[in-house]
Amino acid sequence: MILIEYGLFFFMAEFSKIEPSYISKDGCRLIWKEVEEDDQHVIVLNKDEFEQIFEILLKDSTGIVRLEDEYSRILINTDVTQFQLKELKTLEVKTSILRKNVLEYRNVPHEPKPIKIYPKEFYPSIEIEKEDDDEQNKLLNAVLTSKNKDTVSESDLFRVMATRRSTRNFDVSKAIEQWKIEKILAAADTAPTAGNFQGFKLVYIKNKEIKKRLVEAANNQPYVNAPLVLVFCIDPSRVKMNFPPEILTKFSLQDATLAAAYSQLAASALGLSSIWIGMLDEEKVKQIIESDLKPSSILCIGYPQQKRPPKSRRKLKELIQVIE
């Protein structure tokens, strides 16, 4: 059992096990479990990284293994092995325990764990009578205009823009209220789209294991495993316009991007923080969510561990060029 430093926070955790990577049969996941919280910390290793560790431990030697992110490294010492990571300060495990687990894992063939996905329709908590032709978007409007004691006034839009700040540290112990999630989803539906064909699909990830797999598909960025995870995908087949396929794909990408931006602003208006994920392996994401649609971004949302002021921006005169 060790004390782990994570920014300004400390927690007790102990090494738990090694299991196959969710995506590749050649990789693996090293897992530490927190003692006082129902949480875990995971390091994903590719085949080459794991083989380097195996060779060092097999020879009962010491050494350094550098991970592919170019910031993290593993220091294998005689008594303790340290995992010095970009996000976490340090994870540790007794070398004898690591050696035993690595050698046992290496001698058994492994395959990625399958997860069967059963897509469901989304039903808001707000109920209305049957929609008719005389009143369009009745349910959408009901969700967007529903009042709550924490609802932000529409007149505060520019304050929301000015104070929005991305975060990579979410308070995972604090659940997002359902009514806030519904407003965030509804906001995406109000974004402008090419020809109003809405050439995108929004995948709302609730499954915890799917979130963990998306971490691997998003360059091992741990904050992808957030309280609320939304995957925005492009769907050019919805754009019924007489243009070449590459133009329809461009329209669809713009649609999905605008929708994600609307959801991000809505989250900020509701007192939440978010991080926009653009670094992702498109094929891996498609495999994980079992979709043929190409993902454009992943939006991760939650309550921040610490509220921070917005970052400085360049001056408007540097940003804007005027053509008269």
Briefly characterize the structure.
The protein is of the alpha+beta class and 324 residues long. The protein has helices at 47-58, 95-106, 138-145, 157-163, 178-189, 208-217, 245-269, 282-289, 316-319, and strands spanning 2-6, 9-20, 28-34, 40-45, 63-66, 73-76, 80-84, 91-94, 200-205, 228-234, 273-277, 295-302. It has 9 helices and 12 strands.
Overview of the structural elements:
The protein has 324 residues and is an alpha+beta fold. It folds into two domains: 2-106, no CATH class; 138-302, NADH Oxidase. It contains nine helices and twelve strands. It has helices spanning 47-58, 95-106, 138-145, 157-163, 178-189, 208-217, 245-269, 282-289, 316-319, and strands spanning 2-6, 9-20, 28-34, 40-45, 63-66, 73-76, 80-84, 91-94, 200-205, 228-234, 273-277, 295-302. The strands form three sheets. Strands 1-2-3-4 form a four-stranded antiparallel beta sheet. A four-stranded antiparallel beta sheet has the order 5-6-7-8. The longest helix is centred in the last third of the chain and has 25 residues, at 245-269. It starts with a strand and ends in a 5-residue tail after the last helix. Residues 1-10 have low confidence and may be disordered.
